[in-house]
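Predicting holo structure, zinc ion bound.
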Amino acid sequence: MDLVGTKNKVLNSKPVACVCADCTHAEQYVHTFQTYFHIFSIPIFPIRKHSVLECQQCNKLSLEKELNDQRKAIVKLTAGQVKTPPYMYVGSVVLALLASWSVYTFELDSTRTEAFLSRPAASDVAVIEAGQGQFQVLRLIAIEGGRIRYQISQYVYKNVASAKTAIKKRVIDEAGFFADGLHEMPIERYQKSHVEFVQRHK
Ligand SMILES: [Zn+2]
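Done. Tokens:
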């Protein structure tokens, strides 16, 4: 089974008065299918509808393009009444929600980071670029006379996201997360360094 691709679903099977070209039986079914794009079988968006005609007696199947004009008209009329169900768009809706949620949380994080950075407090924890594309967590211990006193994590992260996760999941509260030594620097230097994220820790 393809994890990503297109699938067909029968939306409707309706009996119609229409003579079979083979056995002349007077009733046939119009089966209407929806082709849709899916990811892991979840419908993302509908692509097109198409129909086949099936004889109730001899089971002859005819594609729309194989029908004469009169039969084609019957099929088109029947298929036209079949609506694409809203759940065919469910994946698109979910993807759109996920995208706007991540944009929202990203903006919220940036706004907070700026606010916390402009007025640092003793409970702040920050993700700071340690150089060479690596990141560390810094914990403010005190702010005195225009200087911050801080601890720095023993751990180094390869990206901002995993450092943020350590803060959010409170890994940073575990013993030995921060190195013992206390450092200090002017507030201004802290504000001008590559601080990627700040959380006011409680
Ligand atoms: Zn037939």
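The helical segments are 69-80, 90-118, 160-168, 187-192.
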